[in-house]
Amino acid sequence: MGGKQSEAAGREELPFVAPCRRLSPTAPFRWLRAGVADLLKAPQQSLVYGLVVAVLIAAVSLLAWFRGSQWIMFAMLGGFVFLAPLTCIGLYAISAQLERDQQPLLMRSLRAAFRRHFSNEMVFAIVLLVIFLVWARAAIMVTVFFPTDGEASWRELAGFLAFGSAVGAVFAAVTFSASAFSLPMIMHRNVDSVTAIVTSINAVLRNKAAMFVWLCLIVLLLLAGLATAFVGLIVIVPVIGYAAWHAYLETIDADAFPRHVTGITATPRPAEAGAVEAGEPTAPRAP
User: Fold this and answer.
1) What is the pLDDT along the chain (287 residues), one digit of tens a residue?
2) Which of 7, 19, 140, 259 has its CB 3.0 to 4.6 Å from that of 285, i.e. a possible disulfide?
3) How far apart are CA 93 and CA 219, in angstroms?
């Protein structure tokens, strides 16, 4: 009983939001290079993971195309932006193993990602699911404004696409801000979903230029994957997932929060442990 009370008291003393470091607009390119490096270190695990995600995306898209319409398919593809962070959880675990000089085991990564942190991830998943469902309804409503009288002119099509893109951009901005760093933080430290989401939003708002570049790179890479009939996603999804993990480590200073008692991230990274022993100062950060 006393142990639970002391743990609760300890959690009350934790900050509501983790500080974030200032980023340059070129930082996302550094994250992508780190993501490619992780892919080369664990090619088999990465490609298997990417293949499964690519097949799921292709299956949902084709089902929407043949059972609905091309507009529903585009809505489902747009909705993937909202659910994509959940598909990368296992990739964070693979990167975490590589950093600790551990053999990157796919089953261990999936167990760490979807079992050890299941409760917090489910809260986050519900939030994303609600956003996705609202987006799906909004996307269907937008198609009502599609010009149907005769041959639509390019001007009418441009107006329709611009309006649809503006609606999608609002949903994407909200989702991206909430998920950019939250799931990696849940994987890395023993924090609740609310703290992780608020930390992510705070970091995105304080690094608008860098995060805008990062979002554009993600969208371009995903479009490239779709343009290759989903085949390119086999490589692109793992690279984005690994890059997101390195983005979190570079951006968020979560040292004030406790480590997980068990699991991959219960062990400090070599660079992390070395910095503590040497007493090196931390990078500039903002609350």
Assistant:
1) 444 444 444 556 778 899 999 999 999 999 999 999 999 999 999 999 999 888 888 877 777 666 655 555 555 555 555 556 667 888 998 999 999 988 888 777 777 766 656 666 667 667 766 766 676 666 666 666 665 555 656 666 666 667 666 766 777 788 888 889 998 998 899 898 889 999 999 999 999 999 999 989 988 998 898 889 889 999 999 999 999 999 999 999 999 999 888 888 888 877 665 544 444 444 444 55
2) 19
3) 23
Question: Tokens 């950019």 belong to which residue?
Answer: 180
Write the DSSP symbol of residue 116.
Answer: I
- Give one DSSP letter per residue of 189-232, joined into a string: S---HHHHHHHHHHHHHHTHHHHHHHHHHHHHHHHHHHHTTTTT
The residues near 127 (Cβ < 8 Å, ≥ 6 apart) are 178, 193, 197
| Token digits of residue 187 | 């994987």
Spatial separation of the C-alpha atoms in residues 240 and 153, rounded to whole Å: 37
Q: What's this model's pTM, rounded to 2 decimal places?
A: 0.79
Structure tokens at 197: 């989401």
Give SS3 for 17: coil
Q: With the C-alpha atoms ordered 90, 174, 224, 156, is the resulting torsion angle positive or negative? A: positive
Amino acid at 258: P
Q: Specify whether the CB–CB gap between 196 and 125 falls below 8 A.
A: no
> Smallest Cα–Cα separation from 271: which of 263, 262, 280, 259?
280
The ranges assigned to domains in the chain are 17-286
